[in-house]
Amino acid sequence: MTKLSTYEAAMAAYEPVLGLETHIELDTGTKMFCGCPTAFGAEPNTQICPVCLALPGALPVANRAAVEATMKIGLALNCRIAEWTRFARKNYFYPDMPKNFQTSQYEEPLCEDGYVDVAVDGDHYRVEIERVHLEEDTGKTLHVGGATGRIHGATESLVDYNRAGIPLVEIVTKPVPGAGDLAPEVARAYVTELRDIVRSLGVSDVRMEQGSLRCDVNVSLNRAGDAWGTRTETKNVNSLRSVERAVRHEIRRQAALLDSGEKIHQETRHFHEATGETSPGRSKEEATDYRYFPEPDLAVMEPDREWVERLRSGLPELPRKRRERLRAEWGLGELEMQSVVNADAVEIIEATVAAGASPTAAVKWWLGELSRRANETGVELGELRIGPEQVAELQGMVDDGRLNDKLARQVIDGVLADEGGPAEVAASRGLEVVSDTGALEAAVDEAIAANPDAAEKIRGGKHAAAGALIGAVMKSTKGQADAGAVRELILSKLG
Amino acid sequence: MARLARLEVTDDELDAFAGQLDVILESMQTLGEVDTDGVEPTSHAVPLVNVFREDQPQPSLPRDAALAGGPDTAEGRFRVPRILDDEE
Fold it and tell me: Which of A30, A94, A303 sits opposite B57 (nearest CB)?
């Protein structure tokens, strides 16, 4: 078993430094260097051509839309756009590219030196961007003969090159020191912000679960005042939640090793969704010499400034600005809005408000009860089996006095269990506030008769004693009464 | 170098190739005698910049034709030998 420090002990002894490498598949209609379509889920090897396969004589030509999309990303991340940039061959031996190299960029990336600001717990962090470059995705490899499709122990592999050549943007941060014990949250907030920025640009669907946004997480630890430690690179981090978990796990794992006097090896590790742990990847003996050299088949690019400025002025409203607008519209405080952002709930709350709920109610449900449910089951808010429309409907029933909070939570139980929409669940489970005045009066009379002491105190003007009677009525109506109405009824009878 | 290029060569071949490589390297060194002061390094033989294509789909190869160039196939995919050695 992996030895782990507690997170608190790790943070007391060490300071973490983060680094994040994110790959984003662009949603162009064709590949980076040829006209093959890029549809997801097509039959294997039906979207490949001589360029994809590097057949002799094939000539790659860069996709203008992909170059433009990358520049938009660079501009949205406050980068400088290169005046002169070119592609390079990254040579390696692995059958996921038929060419034995991946066309990428090396010393002259398309965009450089930007930043992204994120906020966590009221503190602001500037994550500096080192570079944004353009490359091509690789094919998909299916390992046969080993345990559960893993490369280890496989006897052979089957390769589908449909994905090979799809434009891929790599965004690399500079090292991020200073996040301290908020490092896991800062990492998550950064990837969330990046995803939202790219989504707002409309150049990728940025879906982590489909692999159109993939993240590698670098973590190192050092003692205060010491030089930065050796970092590990964790791959296979496939959700925002996992970004946070992977950082936390690596901090705890590395701290335990350093505590016992061991060294951290610079290595690639794999994140396991099920356990939240990381394990070593292939040995870094192939700390590969990629023998990069300029790609001679693709022309140098010199994006002219007029093109760059046209793109800059055409950028849409970016998430930061949009959030500020929504915050004002919704009447939220800055911290409250941060909680909404960090819970990844902006879109879902916006949709709930659009479906008719008040902003306050929408925020209350999504950040309260529904966040709790999502955490309990380990899913993102958007994966819950209740959506904005249903939350708005639920709140409508509360506003109409047909449900109280307690009943509403039971309705949520039913909706999450796929029993239907809120109205259906309330009907089938018999969850409606008792509004039959006769039944309510009977319950109140019963409670007064059963609690003569409390009744006497209320008659004597001690209204606080009503609590005991309200409790009794709620109990006898199985929580299906409106507490405010019950209180009024009690006070009017004993007043 | 054979290892870097993933080439399997016998010891005899290694000796032969080593000799041949020396000749190649020596020949290349004569290039170093050219005076290149003030000459910018170039990576491209043609003076073209900004060559782009529009994002318009073109037909791909029929799958059979695409797979025909590979030594072995299965389930519509290229079939390749084991990637990792036992000890890895």
Answer: A30
Residue A241 maps to a domain: yes
SS3 A273: coil
Q: Tens of pLDDT along A230-249? A: 999 998 898 999 999 999 99
**CATH code for the domain of A444:** 1.10.10
C-alpha closest to that of A229 among A203, A250, A205? A250
Distance from CA of A298 to the nearest CA of B (A): 8
Angstroms from B71 CA to nearest CA on chain A:
12
CA-based nearest distance B58→chain A, Å:
5
Q: Do B57 and A37 touch (CB under 8 A)?
A: yes
Which of B49, B56, B83 shows the shortest C-beta gap to A151?
A: B83
ipTM above 0.95, yes or no: no
> Where in the sequence is the domain holding A70, given as residue range(s)?
7-312
In the sheet that A167-173 helps form, which strands lie side by side, from edge to edge?
A80-81, A111-120, A123-136, A167-173, A15-25, A213-222, A232-237, A268-272, A277-280
- Say yes or no: A300 contacts chain B, CB-CB below 8 A: yes
pLDDT value at A468 more than 80: yes
Tokens of A298: 């693709």
| pTM confidence score | 0.78
Q: A-chain residues within 8 Å CB-CB of B53?
A: 35, 61-64
The per-residue pLDDT for range A203-221, each reduced to its tens digit, is: 999 988 888 999 999 999 9
The answer to whether residue A485 scores a pLDDT higher than 60 is yes
